[in-house]
Amino acid sequence: MKSVPMLSGAFLQPAGQSLPDPLLAVRNERAAALADMPMPTRKTENWKYSSKYLKLTEDMAATLPATEKASSLDVPGYRIVLNNGAINRADSQYPDQGGITVQHFSDLDADDASSLAQKLGSTLDAEQTQFAQINSARFEDGLLIRLAANTVLDKPLFILHETAATQNGSAFPRIFVEAGTNSEMTLVEAYVSEGDSAALVDTVTEFQLADGANITSIRLTMEGETVQHIGATGVLQQRNSRFESHCVGFGGPLRRHDLQVRLEGEGAETKLNGVVVTQGKQHYDNHTSIDHVAAHCNSEETYRNIAADQSHAVFNGRIHIHQDAQKSNADMNNKNLLLSNGAEIDTKPELEIYADDVKCAHGATIGQLDETSVFYLVSRGIGRRQANVLLTMAFINELVEQIPVEAVRDTAQARLNDFFDQTFQEA
Questions:
Q1: Of all helices (H) and strands (E), which one includes residue 193?
Q2: Which of 35, 49, 144, 267 has the smallest count of CB within 10 Å of its CB?
Q3: 141-180 in b/e burial notation, b at 16+ Cβ within 10 A?
Q4: CA-CA distance, 276 to 287, in Å (whole number)?
Q5: In sequence order, what are the beta bridge partners of 201?
Q6: pTM for the full model?
Q7: What is the pLDDT of residue 73?
Q8: 337 within 8 A of 395, measured Cβ to Cβ
Q9: What angle, 0 to 180 degrees and rounded to 10, lies between the N-to-C axes of helices 384-400 and 371-379?
């Protein structure tokens, strides 16, 4: 019998020791717990479509060196720059209004560090997010963002993750957001890279929303062709809170994002939108999970995938209605577009209901561009390439236009235009 490959111990050896003792303890405990972690294989249910794309070598275990490189992204509003997972204080512009604090894990006092240590990982299912556990064993710093009650951040806060893949290695960014009662904020995370060495970005972002909090999370993944990106986002929502997510992802050698939301207070609402495009031999895997724990909660989820050439996209969406979650309203929709015969898309919507007074629906479709529609546009004098672009953009434009930050919409549109230029050639 073929043995199951194990995670190399090199990936459990953190280099930095500047964290407060409670956070060092979390890191050491997690590393010890992962000592015999089996690597995902095609028999691992939540990795069966992605395990073959995961390529981790010993030389990638080393932490990429911190740099002080200025950000390559020009964004409006507040910004915090992370170079290779390390916070670049000099190039960051922290929020300056009252009611919000942004602290580095390394700067926390004993009480705050102890409180944070008890919360780290509490928003995520450990069995389903194996690489989030590796992040817990390897993070060397992080951001703790706290919104006081009734605080409304006046501008979006951008977290710019920039990876310099000038040598093989890994980065482990960590963010924890506490949103107080009736607070409101838009957080944008953008991931980019440069260089052509093999790198792993293993990132975790967690949100805890108090009663009435309103958080908009925007995630833009745009790293290069040598960077494997594995991310996890966990959300806990209390009474009457609202969480809105917009994820736009461009494929790579391996892209994976786990998004897990728990509606724990009555009246909580969540909205998840996602757009993914892949080309060449790229791969992108989205796994989402929404747990309706309390009654009278609403969730709405819409994901669209486009795959060209020999690329591969995956969507696995799960909605779990718990026994006490009466009067739940949940809707999940996944539509997928194949632009070539060699592309592949796998979709698996799941709906698990244990309450009897609910309104739930889910569905998925996979198809190709409608040749009748293409012919109609061509017959009206539009070139075939432009007809393909128009129909493909129409497939995802509804979701792109819903992104509430113009700078992100413009960036996403520019990258989509590049995708169209490479995918569709003039006939």
A1: strand 184-194
A2: 35
A3: bbbbbbbeeebebeebbbbbbbbbbeebbbbbbbbbbbbb
A4: 12
A5: 171, 229
A6: 0.96
A7: 85
A8: yes
A9: 120
Are β-strands 242-250 and 214-221 bridged in parallel, bridged antiparallel, or unpaired?
parallel
User: Minimal CA–CA distance to 268: which of 349, 327, 196, 187?
Assistant: 327
Least confident range from 7-11, 168-172, 271-275, 415-419: namely 7-11
**How far is Cα 185 from Cα 177, in angstroms, rounded to an integer?**
10
CA distance 183 to 202: 29
Q: Which two tokens stand for residue 326?
A: 């009466």
Give the closest residue to 315 by CA, choosing from 272, 349, 268, 270: 349
Helix (H, G, I), strand (E, B) or coil at 392: helix
Predicted pLDDT of residue 38: 92
Task: Report how far residue 414's alpha carbon sits from residue 222's, in angstroms, rounded to the nearest whole number.
Answer: 12
How far apart CA 169 and CA 197 sit, in angstroms, is: 8
Interhelix angle 406-423/384-400, nearest 10 degrees: 150
Q: What does 42-64 look like in DSSP terms, one character per residue?
A: TTSGGGTTTGGG----GGGSSBP
Instruction: Fill in the DSSP letter of residue 37.
Output: P
Give 5-43 pLDDT, tens digit per residue. Answer: 889 888 988 777 889 999 999 999 999 999 889 999 999
Alpha-carbon span 158 to 191, nearest angstrom: 11
- Give the per-residue pLDDT at 5: 85
Q: Are 294 and 325 in contact (CB under 8 A)?
A: yes
Considering only CA atoms, which of 169, 234, 177, 249 is closest in space to residue 202? 169
